[in-house]
Amino acid sequence: MKIQQQDIAKQHEQLQQEHREAFAFQQLQLDKKDIDTDALIQKIGAFQVAIPSWALGTGGTRFGRFPGGGEPRSLEEKIEDVGMLHALNRASGAISLHIPWDIPKDAQAIKQLADSLDLRFDAVNSNTFQDQADQKLSYKFGSLQHVDKSVREQAIAHNIDVIKYGEALGSDAITVWLSDGSSFPGQLNFRRAFQNTYESLQEIYGALPEQWKMFVEYKAFEPNFYSMTVGDWGQSLLYANKLGDQAYTLVDLGHHLPNANIEQIVALLLMEGKLGGFHFNDSKYGDDDLTVGCIKPYQLFLIFNELIEGMDARGMDHTTDLGWMIDASHNVKDPLEDLLQSVEAILIAYAQALLVDRKALNEAQLSNDTVSCQEILQDAYRTDVRALVAEARHRNGGALQPLKLFRDLEVRNSLIRERGSKTVATGL
Ligand code: PSV
Ligand code: MN
Ligand code: MN
């Protein structure tokens, strides 16, 4: 299933009148504030969010899984699905692979397919949180932290393999997320677990190609429920600092304890030059991996506000200097529709945060004018930027309304016809 340029043009014809009106109103508002609309649109249009290969099918929970039809049955089909999302929104131009779920057997052919869809390969992800059928030693009691050196060696070798797969595809980062930890008090010697993990990470770090980054992802809980060996940003930052310049912390929005101030965390990590990657999702309770922005859109805006402030202060490029990725799971929605909604929510929050009057905010902060600080932030947050985002997408050749076009074209039905109604994508 491919989205044709004429489908996009046809939708544009139908919707352009309404869009033009909304955009003209938006432009007027921005002009009044002396904001350069074209520069803004350029920034929004340049922003790309990677799609993880494991989010293209239904995930399920430990209680059950209700697979939908037409899910991708191979790595090639996963890439095609991301290509389709990208054709619709022109903002999903990268895919992040999980090894061994997505082993690229013929890297050349896989790369060519991605190129033809204008996609690049984002960070590659290792997996030492499950035992694979052909695996010699078990990760039941951890991988890089394991008390048995031979288990650690097996996990290190896997991570080095993942780097090699990534290299062949033109990826330039590895994300290490560990489920290592303990579920009961006394089960682990914390210092030994940390030290073993650090030494294992050092070996993996030593195998990084020169331009590569290593992202150390933290998570406060699950699958271990008493301690996680990379449990919070402090632990991740410790590893990243000890490892060296190529190691960074990765923030996944769902991996914090309830009510954590994630915007403050990203501000400080950026200040230290140690924020490397970002996983978007939303949650009400913890790691629920729901559609981005569906529960706490204001928090997402506040995070973007800090990201922009911190990146600009360091002269960082918004599009290329951090790894942006969606990390969600899909239980009741069509995964592709959910991903379209997620990318849209990210672009909206990004656009709103770009609107913050930073000079005025700084002045209000310096004069302890708390009321104005809030007014300035909420003025930006309460701006309806949907026409701006749609205009950016249109200028890039995408659809004015990607989700509507996905439905109007009955994409899911075509995929079911192509792939069958009983498909189970590999992954979570
Ligand atoms: C773990 O909850 C996580 O968010 C990590 O990012 C993994 O890479 C991803 O899920 C899929 O395994
Ligand atoms: Mn994640
Ligand atoms: Mn997660």
UniProtKB/TrEMBL annotation:
Keywords, sorted A to Z: Isomerase, Manganese, Metal-binding
InterPro entries named in the record: L-rhamnose_isomerase (IPR050337), Xyl_isomerase-like_sf (IPR036237), Xyl_isomerase-like_TIM-brl (IPR013022)
Name of a matching Pfam family: AP_endonuc_2
GO MF annotation terms: isomerase activity; metal ion binding
Domain Xylose isomerase-like TIM barrel: 104-289
Protein name in the entry: Sugar isomerase
Species of origin: Flavilitoribacter nigricans (strain ATCC 23147 / DSM 23189 / NBRC 102662 / NCIMB 1420 / SS-2) (Lewinella nigricans)
